[in-house]
Amino acid sequence: MPRGRYSLHDPHDHTPLADEHFQCAPGPSGWRYVSRLTGPAGDHRGSVDLALDDLGRPLRLELHAGDWQVRGAALDGVTWVRTDPTGTQATEGNVRAHAFTGTSPAFLVATARLLRLTPSSAATRVRLVAFTDPVLAPRTVDQSWALVNSEAHATDSGPLTVDEYQVTALDTGEQHTVHIAGDVVLAAPGIELEDLQSPPSRFD
Fold first, then answer.
1. Strand residue runs (E) in the chain
2. Could you tell me the superkingdom of the organism this chain comes from (predicted)?
3. CA dihedral 99, 187, 113, 198 (to 10 degrees)
4. pLDDT, tens digit, for every residue of 180-192?
5. What is the spatial distance between Cα 198 and Cα 204, in angstroms, rounded to a whole number?
């Protein structure tokens, strides 16, 4: 069960945003990731709880940021309920999308699991609902993912395969690179893996 810490920063000016303390593991139904976020001063910033099925679809998502909350799942596309800080109002949403995304590294692993690309695969288009900080506002985004390289590295616990993805935002054409090993993000814009206490899980 990998556990560790990511540091999150603004990908443009590198302003520190939060530390994400996480643990994740494959399970009988798929994969689960849980984390808590702390600010630069150590204050609580929120949490992530994401469970995927064997096909990489979101069985359950629960996000907290400040007093805002989102609960969602794959249902007729993706469906979610967003609750305001007072708890007096809840708004429902539904989009014909494949999955969710956001600032957490969990969503990069989840999208890679959903697409299951190979180096010979063509670039694949995916529609996602992004929840943007700090109020978890939903926004539909279209991306293109391509697996450009997959390389095995020797480690003390055996070979570790690192996958390099090229991700393109289809509305702007902006491209960036994401490196993933098993269920751990090694590097991505705005994300640094600072601490890992056990090796990444290997997916079948």
1. 3-9, 16-26, 30-38, 44-53, 58-65, 68-74, 78-83, 90-95, 99-101, 124-132, 137-153, 160-169, 175-181, 184-188, 191-196
2. Bacteria
3. -120
4. 999 999 999 999 9
5. 18
Residue found under tokens 């290997």? 202
121 CA to centre of own chain: 21
Single-letter amino acid code for the residue at 179 = H
Q: Which two tokens stand for residue 118?
A: 């190979």
**Cβ neighbour number for residue 28 with a 10 Å cutoff:** 5
Residue 111, beta-bridge partner list? none
How does pLDDT run across 135-178, given as a tens digit for each residue?
Answer: 999 999 999 999 999 998 887 777 889 999 999 999 999 999 99
Q: What is the value of pTM for the model shown? A: 0.95
What dihedral do alpha carbons 153, 110, 125, 148 form, nearest 10°?
-10
Nearest Cα residue to 16 out of 41, 52, 51, 46: 41
Contact 48, 106 (CB under 8 A): yes
106, 111, 116, 118 alpha-carbon torsion, rounded to 10° = -100
Q: Is 204 helix (H, G, I), strand (E, B) or coil?
A: coil
> Which runs of consecutive H residues, i.e. helices, occur in the chain?
106-115
Residues in the chain: 204
C-alpha 4/C-alpha 99 separation (Å) is 25
- Rounded to an integer, what is the distance from CA 93 to the centroid of its chain? 20
